[in-house]
């Protein structure tokens, strides 16, 4: 019993004795030469139990390695958060592209003619892809920018002058690139509001044609002559879309001033009704054709207007077909087509 107490005291005083030959007595505070040692310095002391090695680490390696560790952890966390944000944005935009909505909302938003499903899916997919790209870029800039400033702060840099310089540069770039910013903002609102999409026939004033591509900065369209137009979104003050929801074919038919208007109106109505009942055109003519009557008196001609509500973008095809049918019907009835006075 007389030898047990001294032996236990010796183990308590030097727990690493017999395990590490270089182990020394002391405390982390003494070895790290600080009343509040860092976690890594305590870890080095607990592993080595060497005062000299722990002091060397605390003097030369503790701050650089701790900073490097913090930088790596911050960078890894930023990458994880960015990846999660990108996945969420991609999932939301894919749901937008697939048009996932409840049947109640679908019925509430249904129009008279929703257009070709393939065309609508293509437009929705492009909107989702463009918005997803923008949102992912914004998320990356915010997340990685925050991480970069955190890393610079951990390195001991004074962020106030950097932020002030960045603000001045941002203002200068904003003034210099205000047209690009205007194009991007106009393109973003255009996509959000679904003003037009790929496949639509639009008129922007300076150009008119079928939309081939829509980005945040520019709209690419091709006219009837095959010319491709690139129109910056910020330059589009107004846009006429001939392919959204439904269209209307309007025909002004000039006949001789001496023709019986009631007879001509009956011929036009019968011809348009026959076309609307034709299986090749019935799905594209949405309502019963209507003869509005005399539109104008022009010299030796009477102009009678016929209108048909059509599927979006099909006004031209239906108008051309109806003109051919009207010409044959007039020939059979002996009605003379006149040339309106200029």
Strand arrangement across the biggest beta sheet: 4-3-2-1-5
Number of strands: 8
What does the overall shape look like? Answer: rod-shaped
| Rounded Rg | 39 Å
Number of helices: 10
Helix- and strand-based class?
Answer: alpha+beta
Bin the helical content: 40-55%
Cα separation of the termini:
131 Å
Describe the main β-sheet briefly.
5 strands, antiparallel
SSE succession: HHHHHHHHEEEEEEHEEH
Overall mean pLDDT stands at 79
Q: Give the uncertain stretches in residue-range form.
A: 1-14, 100-116
Strand content: 5-15%
Summary tags:
disordered N terminus; 3-stranded antiparallel sheet; alpha+beta; 342 residues
Short structural description:
The chain has 342 residues and is α+β, with helices and mostly antiparallel strands. It has helices at residues 4-13, 28-31, 39-48, 51-98, 103-109, 117-154, 159-176, 178-193, 261-277, 315-333; strands spanning 201-203, 208-214, 218-222, 228-232, 240-241, 247-256, 290-298, 301-310.
């Amino acid at each position: 019993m007389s030898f047990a107490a001294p032996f236990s005291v010796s183990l308590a005083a030097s727990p690493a004795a017999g395990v590490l030959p270089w182990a020394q007595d002391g405390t982390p505070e003494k070895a790290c030469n600080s009343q509040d040692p860092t976690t890594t310095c305590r870890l080095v002391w607990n592993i080595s139990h060497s005062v000299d090695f722990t002091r060397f680490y605390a003097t030369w390696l503790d701050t650089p390695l701790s900073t490097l560790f913090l930088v790596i952890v911050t960078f890894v966390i930023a990458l994880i958060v960015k990846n999660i944000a990108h996945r969420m944005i991609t999932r939301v935009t894919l749901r937008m592209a697939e048009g996932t909505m409840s049947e109640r909302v679908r019925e509430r938003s249904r129009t008279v003619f929703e257009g070709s499903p393939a065309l609508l899916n293509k437009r929705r997919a492009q909107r989702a892809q463009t918005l997803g790209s923008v949102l992912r870029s914004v998320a990356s800039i915010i997340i990685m920018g925050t991480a970069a400033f955190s890393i610079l702060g951990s390195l001991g840099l004074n962020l106030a002058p950097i932020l002030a310089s960045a603000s001045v540069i941002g203002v200068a770039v904003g003034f210099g690139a205000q047209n690009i910013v205007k194009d991007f903002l106009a393109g973003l609102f255009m996509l959000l509001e679904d003003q037009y999409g790929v496949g639509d026939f639009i008129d922007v004033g300076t150009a008119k044609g079928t939309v081939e591509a829509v980005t945040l900065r520019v709209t690419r369209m091709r006219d009837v002559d095959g010319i491709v137009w690139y129109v910056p979104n910020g330059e589009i003050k107004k846009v006429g879309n001939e392919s959204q929801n439904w269209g209307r074919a309007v025909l002004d038919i000039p006949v001789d001033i001496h023709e019986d208007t009631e007879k001509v109106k009956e011929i036009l109505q019968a011809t348009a009704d026959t076309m609307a009942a034709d299986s090749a055109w019935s799905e594209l003519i949405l309502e019963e054709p209507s003869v509005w009557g005399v539109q104008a008196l022009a010299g030796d001609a009477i102009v009678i207007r016929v209108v048909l509500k059509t599927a979006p973008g099909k006004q031209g095809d239906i108008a051309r077909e109806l003109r051919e049918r009207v010409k044959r019907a007039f020939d059979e009835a002996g009605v003379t087509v006149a040339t309106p006075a200029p």
